[in-house]
Design brief:
With 308 residues, the protein is of the alpha/beta class. It contains eleven helices and ten strands. Strand 2, helix 2 and strand 3 form a beta-alpha-beta unit.
Length: 308
């Protein structure tokens, strides 16, 4: 197997994780590899050494491959660091596959992305492609199909086009003008808890109280009335849970078992799988009344922790 689409890998301070991902890439041999590594944070013992260990691993790429690197001297953080890396990637490529260092894809993930990047390149209804799946088969509208269309671009192993990334903005201070509440209500299945969940998420990001970039991607997709092609089988493993993670500290064991997808992929109608998205809202995002109370409690505790 040789992957023809360009692949962006984003890393920071976890050389053990990056080594596992590079071993998987060694199996599929992408011809163009982009590696972005954020810089160390000041005052963190041994972090500079771990960042350097990640940089050194790039030198172990031993298959025929064009390697491009973006090594930051200082730490940009989760939001600016990742968005800068993806913008750098799409300044040079029109489309491609994006992996963080803790996402280990099944080999079939790569031809899955390649087929759909080509199939939907000029279809503005399709915003991105995702290889991770949380939803059990009995909660999919069409489990017999290889993929479905979701409102949320899940980013644990994904691919997209420059045209879609151009709609992403890290600063979403004016998000209510971009996605008025009546349109948000429609996009989340006319669910009050889901509307509250996403409105509060976007508001926290607008106030810069959470340092991330992926919620802004969800906003861009919702505002664009576009869908994400999402695999109906899970194609990735996330090995990044734990204390070294920025956000995913706890593994809730949500992903479906990893297994290869059947290729080539039949054509799937570009129709939203509302049933699967309803399950995702309830169980993955926990956008329920009980989940709202938990979210509010976590937010208040984090505010008290910052103030202490």
């Amino acid at each position: 197997m040789t992957v023809l689409e360009p692949v962006l890998v984003m890393a920071f301070n976890r050389p053990d994780h990056l080594a596992v991902l590079l071993d998987r890439l060694r199996e599929v041999k992408p011809l163009r590899l982009y590696v972005a590594i954020d810089g160390p944070r000041p005052g963190r013992e041994d972090e500079a050494d771990r960042v350097q260990a990640c940089r050194d691993l790039v030198g172990t790429v031993d298959w025929p491959c064009q390697v491009h690197t973006l090594f930051q001297d200082s730490n940009l953080g989760c939001g600016l660091g990742v968005s800068t890396a993806i913008s750098w990637f799409f300044a040079q490529e029109g489309r491609g596959i994006i992996l963080e260092d803790d996402i280990i894809p099944d080999p079939s993930f790569f031809p899955y992305c390649e087929e759909l990047l080509e199939r939907y390149e000029h279809d503005d209804r399709v915003f991105a492609i995702s290889g991770c799946n949380f939803v059990p088969p009995d909660h999919l509208s069409r489990p017999d199909l290889p993929y479905r269309f979701s409102q949320v671009p899940h980013i644990w192993g994904w691919a997209t086009w420059r045209r879609s990334w151009a709609k992403h903005h890290l600063d979403i201070a004016g998000w209510r003008g971009t996605l008025p509440v009546h349109r948000l209500w429609s996009r989340v299945g006319h669910s009050v808890p889901s509307t509250v969940y996403w409105a509060s998420t976007f508001e926290l990001l607008a106030r810069k109280e959470v340092d991330t970039w992926d919620g802004q991607l969800v906003l861009a997709a919702m505002a664009d009335d576009a869908w994400t092609a999402t695999s109906n089988v899970n194609l990735i493993e996330n090995i990044g849970f734990g204390e070294s993670a920025t956000h995913t500290l706890e593994d809730r064991d949500e992903l479906q078992p990893i297994r290869p997808i059947g290729l080539p992929l039949p054509e799937v109608p570009v129709v939203h799988d509302a049933r699967a998205d309803a399950w995702t809202r309830r169980h993955h995002f926990q956008a329920t009344w009980r989940g709202m109370l938990g979210q509010a409690d976590r937010y208040l505790r984090s505010r008290r922790g910052r103030a202490a």
